[in-house]
Amino acid sequence: MDNEDNPLRYVSLVLLVIALCGCVGLFISVYHQVILEKRVTLTAMATSYNIQLLLIGISSSGLYMTDLCGTCFPSHQNKWIIQVLDDLFVAIFESCYLMLSWSRGSSVIRFKCPKMAFVMSYGMLVFPFVCFLPVVASITGLAAKTNQMEDFENLSSLAEIILSLISAAITVTMDAMFLWGFIQFLRKLQMDSNQENIDIDFHAVAQYGVGVHVTILLAFAFLSMMYAVNSPWEIELYTILAYGCTTIVFFILVALKVALHNNEVVKEAQASNQMDEAKEAMKSHRESNTVDEQRQSTKSPTTLRNYGASLSTSKWHRSNINIYSEDLDQIRSNGQ
């Protein structure tokens, strides 16, 4: 099928528009959130999570653009330029995906398997940079093509393939480890009778994390199938399916952000209710103490009141302090 007649490029165009709309929607939602919280500053908007999430959406959009350029301009002269852009967007997606997954999922992994989390923490110091090695190889190939160094160009092409496979293998391995940790956490959560003691954010991260990591594995499965076929139409189909998975990952991560924000609102409301209940309990306790004091003072004999006035006052103060200390401890324990 000729490139001019390939209907799949229209699918890429539609997915490109969807991904760009998602990026715009993310920016609007973040801006709306900081307005509601009355902290409209660059620092409040440009958090690491928001930046990484936005870069994932932009890189997903960039993949569609490079695919459209490769379909519409299949010239051999443009091969390395498109390859550099493609590797760059893939590297941005993989590195931001790994960092974002670690920042949100490391607490769950540490909760379930501390030893595995220890190993992954050291790997995260290196893996995001490894994702950009294919870009270096592509730029080298472009330079070799420009200077008509055919042997060096072929070597750069081989290096680009090998480094891309290494980067993909790292991402898949980390993804599988996250997926295993989240599934084990959810299984334990179902069997745990003390579910209320576990932070609701853990549950949200694990639930959405399973969807994200399964989608990433599907993306790499489609990329593997792309190398197993020869038809240009089938190659284009598996490429679009793989790139489509990146967009799905982006929207799932946006949904996770919304879920975590809703959880924060719920926890703030619960904390406010607990504070109100504590104030009411304190007020009721003080009123009951005042009534008991008045009753005891009217029932006590006059001789005893006169005889031990100072001693009685001292004992009442000590008793009153002990009562309020126990009351505060009880309120604190209820609030925890």
What's the helix and strand layout?
Blueprint: H1 8-36, H2 42-45, H3 48-72, H4 79-112, H5 114-123, H6 127-130, H7 133-146, H8 150-191, H9 200-226, H10 232-299, H11 302-307, H12 309-335
N to C succession of SSEs: HHHHHHHHHHHH
CATH class: Mainly Alpha
Shape: elongated
Helix fraction by DSSP (H/I, runs of at least 4): over 70%
Number of strands: 0
Most strands sheet? none
Radius of gyration: 31 Å
**Beta-strand percentage?**
under 5%
Backbone structural class:
mainly alpha
Region (Disordered): 271-306
Keywords: Membrane, Transmembrane, Transmembrane helix
Biased composition (Polar residues): 297-306
Transmembrane segments: 12-31, 121-141, 161-183, 204-228, 240-260
Short recap of the structure:
The protein has about 325 residues and is an all-alpha fold. The protein has helices at about 10-35, 40-45, 50-70, 80-110, 115-125, 125-130, 135-145, 150-190, 200-225, 230-300, 300-305, 310-335. The chain has one domain (about 5-275): Up-down Bundle (Rhopdopsin 7-helix transmembrane proteins), CATH 1.20.1070.
Can you tell me about this structure?
The longest helix is centred in the C-terminal third of the chain and has 68 residues. The chain has 12 helices and no strands. The protein is mainly alpha-helical and 336 residues long. Helices cover 86% and strands 0% of the residues. The C terminus is likely disordered. It has a single domain, classed as Rhopdopsin 7-helix transmembrane proteins, CATH 1.20.1070. Helix 1 runs antiparallel to helix 3. The N and C termini lie far apart (66 Å). It comes from Rhizoclosmatium globosum.
